[in-house]
Amino acid sequence: MKKKILVFGADGFIGTYLIHQLLIQDYDVIVSDISNLGMEYYNGLNVPYYSIDITKNEEFDKLPDYRYDAVIHLAAVQPANVSTKTYDPKNYINVNVIGTLNILEFCRKVEAVKLIYATSHRNTQGMWKTHPVISEKNGRSIKYTGQYSMFSISETAAQDCVFHYDAEYGLNTIIFSLPPVYGYGPHTEIFMDGKPIKTGFRIFIDNAKSCKPIELWGDSSKGRDIVYVKDVVAAFVKAIENEKASGLYNISSGYALTLREEAETIAKVFWGSNTQPIITEYPEKQNNIESYVYDISKAERELNWKPAYKFKDMLMDIIIEEKNSRFDFLVEKRKRMLSEDASS
Question: Quick check: pTM over 0.85?
Answer without folding.
Answer: yes
